[in-house]
Amino acid sequence: MRSGAISRMEVAVESYTADFALDVQGVKGFCPAGEAYAKQQIEANSIPVLSCEGPCIRGEIARLAANLVAQDVPSLARACHAEAFFVPHSSMAQWVKDADKAVMVDGCFLKCHGRVLKKLIEEEKVVHIDALPLHKRYTDIFSMDDVPEEERKAVARGVADKIIAKLKQEAWGATTAA
Question: Is position 16 within any domain?
């Protein structure tokens, strides 16, 4: 590396974004399907599972893994992060805020959704999982379309299995993830 040049890893490690706020445009109404679903989850006392989202392969692995975790563990259910974060008077937001715990599966070290969730609910209620160390792949690929679908699904299955094992080791997960 030539003198004065900064590698990508150094930028990622040395750069820092201070706390900030977003001004989010209001919305009238709620998602009827989301309202009914969230009310069912509140009644069932389900633990919400949120995940990274987007076109990045790391986020896609996190999303697929979160879906599998919620499908495999009866006391867990997927929550809509967008509705929980941006429709503050919705049942989805109420469910996430009032749950005893919430599982957050992020796709990489940036932990974008988890950083938002930790400002929405008490940090000690968040089981925050970075999926990247669980699979250690795709650090130089962005687009999920650059990884075949079957490979994405297989990697996500492996990540989900590791998350479920982690939940079983947690005090609350011993009964939840059995």
Answer: no
Instruction: Estimate the crossing angle of helix 91-98 against helix 112-120, to 10 degrees.
Output: 80
Dist CA 65 CA 73 (whole Å):
12
* H-assigned helices in 87-178: 91-98, 112-120, 132-135, 149-169, 173-176
Distance CA 101, CA 46 (A): 9
Structural domain count, the chain: 1
Per the structure, the complete domain to which residue 123 belongs is given by 32-176
pLDDT tens digits for range 48-64: 999 998 799 999 999 99
Distance CA 106, CA 114 (A): 7
Residues 91-144 have pLDDT tens digits of 999 999 999 999 999 999 999 999 999 999 999 999 999 999 999 999 999 999
CB-CB contact of 71 with 120 (8 Å): no
Element (H, E) at 100: none
1 within a domain of the structure (yes/no): no
Q: In 3-state terms, what secondary structure has residue 130?
A: strand
- Give domain status of residue 49, yes or no: yes
Does 12 fall in a domain? no
